[in-house]
Amino acid sequence: MNAPTFLLVLTGVLLNAGAQLLLKAGVAPLGAIHVTASTLLQTVGQVLTRGPILAGLACYVVSVGVWIIALSRVEVSLAYPMLSLGYVVNALAAWWLFGEMLGPMRCAGIGLILLGVFVMARG
Questions:
Q1: Taking a C-beta distance cutoff of 8 angstroms, is the pair 33, 27 a contact?
Q2: Residues in contact with 22: Cβ distance below 8 Å, sequence separation at least 6, in sequence order
Q3: Nearest-angstrom CA–CA distance, 94 and 46
Q4: What span, in angstroms and rounded, lies between the C-alpha atoms of 9 and 1?
Q5: Where are the alpha helices (DSSP H) in the chain?
Q6: Where does 28-50 have alpha helices with state H?
Q7: What angle do CA 20, 84, 47 make, to 5 degrees?
Q8: Residue-wise pLDDT tens digits, 35-90
Q9: How much is the pTM?
Q10: How many CB atoms are closer than 10 A to CB 107?
Q11: What is the distance between the alpha carbons of residues 93 and 16, in angstroms, rounded to a whole number?
């Protein structure tokens, strides 16, 4: 994979990871969401009027466009595993931004993901 194509794939990965982080930031102030038939519309309205949620959804839309362009340039069997880098980005960002736990097992998992992506990229 050449450098411009790798940057395109990486941009798609980062947009997807950013979307997840924005969605989390948007729902965090709401606490646990419990949806029932009687609260469905109110809950949807409450969620969809939050700025970070709208920004996260926009990131998803842009990431799909970037991903389509990336897939036109690289095999899906190589590009798709690169999405797992989003797990690494999200784990580290969630630890830094939200104070989420990043214990030894999660760090080991991050290491395995990075190793797997490296192996896939080299093959």
A1: yes
A2: 52, 53, 55, 56, 59
A3: 23
A4: 10
A5: 3-27, 40-48, 51-71, 76-82, 85-98, 104-122
A6: 40-48
A7: 15
A8: 899 999 999 999 999 999 999 999 999 999 999 999 999 999 888 988 999 999 99
A9: 0.86
A10: 13
A11: 13
